[in-house]
Design a protein that fits this description.
The chain is of the alpha/beta class and 212 residues long. The chain has two domains: 6-122, 3-Layer(aba) Sandwich (Rossmann fold), CATH 3.40.50.2300; 132-209, Winged helix-like DNA-binding domain superfamily/Winged helix DNA-binding domain (Arc Repressor Mutant, subunit A), CATH 1.10.10.10. Helix content is 49%, strand content 15%. The protein is built from ten helices and seven strands. The protein has helices at 15-25, 40-50, 66-76, 91-99, 112-122, 132-138, 141-151, 156-163, 167-181, 186-195, and strands spanning 6-11, 31-37, 54-58, 81-86, 104-107, 204-205, 208-209. The strands form two sheets. Strands 2-1-3-4-5 form a five-stranded parallel beta sheet, sandwiched between helices. Helix 4 (91-99) links the parallel strand 4 and strand 5. The longest helix has 15 residues, at 167-181. Mean pLDDT is 81; it is low at 124-137 and 201-212.
Length: 212
């Protein structure tokens, strides 16, 4: 029913992270905390019992592989949105989580208003895709190539070797990509690129295929 608060379940293995997220959720009238889980088993039980609209799920749960848990939740509860909570250095885990159905990822230290906005934008509709025309015109063809290689997990030296350019040139392109997309990390830039269809996991981007 329109006007009903968005029901949120918080599942985090670290007590401090859990408490901070709970406090942020409770700060908004249109968000309703319906459960707290300290491990994966509790999270799954609460998904069944309280049927949240959104699950904030720590990527590093103490008792279960969070990526597998995301897969299970998405399969059992198709309408339930899962936000994966992560840190800067969990690029591979984030990519797997998104592949298994996570809606998007959030940093664990996200500010309350940013968290609320992310949830509001996602539920009950998919994340609004930013203007693709603007993004495509802002990123050069070379930057799209670099972004795609970033999505494949390549380091700057590896990208430089593949594109036959210097490390300094790659670093310049990466900085430009982050600035143009408004991203604060490589992982965030990759996620934004995937979500806005600028790049794809099969080696495509913007209608072109990588060779070699």
């Amino acid at each position: 029913m329109p006007g009903d608060p968005i029901r949120v379940l918080v599942a985090a293995g670290q007590r401090m992270v859990q408490q901070e997220l709970v406090t942020r959720i409770r700060g908004f009238d249109d968000l309703l905390l319906v459960g707290e889980a300290r491990n994966g088993a509790q999270a799954l039980e609460l998904c069944t019992a309280v049927r949240p609209d959104v699950v904030l799920l720590d990527l590093t749960m103490p008792d279960i592989n969070s990526v597998e848990l995301i897969r299970t939740i998405c399969q059992r509860f198709p309408g339930m949105r899962v936000f994966v909570l992560t840190t800067w250095d969990e690029h591979d885990g984030v990519m797997r989580a998104l592949a298994e159905g996570a809606e998007r990822y959030l940093l664990k230290d996200i500010k309350g208003e940013e968290l609320a906005c992310a949830i509001r934008l996602t539920y009950p509709f998919p994340i609004p895709v930013t203007d693709l025309t603007d993004n495509k015109s802002n990123l050069t063809e070379r930057e799209l190539e670099v972004l795609q290689l970033m999505a494949l997990g390549l380091t700057n030296p590896q990208i430089g070797s593949k594109l036959i350019v210097s490390r300094a040139t790659v670093k310049f392109h990466v900085s430009s990509i982050l600035r143009k997309l408004g991203a604060t990390s490589r992982t965030e830039a990759v996620v934004m690129g995937i979500q806005t269809h600028l790049i794809r996991g099969d080696g495509h981007h913007n209608g072109a295929r990588f060779q070699g």
